[in-house]
Amino acid sequence: MVFGVILAGGIGSRMGNVEKPKQYLNVGGKPIILHTLEKFYVNSKFEKLIVLCPSQWINHTKNLVKKNFNDDSKIVVIEGGSTRNETIMNSIRYIEKEYGLDDDTIIVTHDSVRPFLTYRIIEDNIRYAQEYGACDTVIPASDTIVESVGHEVISNIPDRSVMYQGQTPQSFKAKKLKELYEGLTEEEKEILTDACKIFVIKGQDVHLVEGEVFNIKITYPYDLRVAETLIKGEDK
């Protein structure tokens, strides 16, 4: 079975002084999270879409789902965790409890504030996760990457031709991800930036999926303006 996992646990602190988490801000006349959910909802391969959000926003999210989707039974809203990876683990625990986990259970995890992913990206994630066990959506780095270990002077300038910028979805065989995560030390968990790093730490391959430049994450106020422009382009 294949499950969509929408990560909506953030509070959007980098968006500035706003009254609600950024995933609930309006773009193109409706909350960002609805644009994102729609991209998953139209794909018939998903057994269930699992939205994970802060506990105080669960009822609000459920109401959004009920008002905007004809078959809201396809979407479940549950509480996220204290970290990104704990949020993903909450989704796996839900799947294990309700459906059971086997070697073929796939989760496609995606930022709720990346509403411009495509059907092709989702399809590639499902296919590569089934074939390879783990995959990450990326685009080639367009700018030179500068490393500064001390945050004051340049330590290294890596070869840009082998550098990529990570996006989402990131997709996995859920049982394997759970096993690897539970095998991490507390020190290893502290250095995690995303779920793919769990596989990398444990020496497991993560296949690359070609992303899109417009598959942006809405993080800053400027991104909202860009998103409004992209939405208008989609509507034409």
Automatic annotation (TrEMBL):
Q: Name one Pfam family in it.
A: IspD
Q: Which residues bear the site annotation Transition state stabilizer?
A: R14, K22
Instruction: Name the UniProt key words of this record, in alphabetical order.
Output: Cell wall biogenesis/degradation, Nucleotidyltransferase, Teichoic acid biosynthesis, Transferase
Mind telling me which residues the site (Positions ribitol 5-phosphate for the nucleophilic attack) is annotated on?
Answer: R160, K217
- Gene3D superfamilies xrefs: Spore Coat Polysaccharide Biosynthesis Protein SpsA, Chain A
Coiled-coil boundaries: none
Q: Which residues bind CTP?
A: L7, A8, G9, G10, G81, S82, T83, R84, N85, E86, T87, S112
Q: Does the keyword Transferase apply?
A: yes
GO MF terms, alphabetically ordered? 2-C-methyl-D-erythritol 4-phosphate cytidylyltransferase activity; D-ribitol-5-phosphate cytidylyltransferase activity
Q: What sort of enzyme, by top EC class, is this?
A: transferase
Catalytic function, reaction form: D-ribitol 5-phosphate + CTP + H(+) = CDP-L-ribitol + diphosphate
Q: What is a biological process (GO) this protein takes part in?
A: teichoic acid biosynthetic process
Report which superkingdom the organism of origin falls in.
Bacteria
State the InterPro entries in the record.
IspD/TarI, IspD/TarI_cytidylyltransf_bact, ISPD_synthase_CS, Nucleotide-diphossugar_trans, TarI
This entry's Enzyme Commission designation comes to 2.7.7.40
Q: Iron: present as a keyword of the record?
A: no
Span-the-membrane segments of this chain are none
Functional summary from the UniProt entry:
Catalyzes the transfer of the cytidylyl group of CTP to D-ribitol 5-phosphate.
State the family named in the UniProt similarity comment for this chain.
Belongs to the IspD/TarI cytidylyltransferase family. TarI subfamily.
What is the name listed in the Swiss-Prot or TrEMBL entry for this protein?
Ribitol-5-phosphate cytidylyltransferase
Q: What's the source species for this entry?
A: Anaerobutyricum soehngenii
